[in-house]
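Field reference: sequence -> structure
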Amino acid sequence: MKKKNRVRKAQEFQTIIHKGQKYVCPSFVLYTTAKKEDEARIGISLPKKIGHAVDRNLYKRQVRMMCQDLVDFSSCPMDGVIILRFGYKDLDYAANKNSLEKLLYKAKMLSI
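Structure field:
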């Protein structure tokens, strides 16, 4: 996922979380709002309780790769924030990717 397709500022995270629509599954929580720039952006966050820094960075890299494979940023109508839940650790990469795909489709960030 390219840097121009990421939400990076804390204030933008808070705006999307507080004013956005919420979608939930066992591994993820997704907040979405209408996009403000030409291309859609996605931010990824997870709590410190999920694991050590090495584990959290691995999970964020995995989710970035999932988003890069699933989302067409130029045609997607929304910005989003993905928050990982404790259920993420219990499933493998393929199951988590499938779960994220269903969640993005439900949020209309993805068209199949």
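Note: Residues 53-70 form the longest helix (18 residues).
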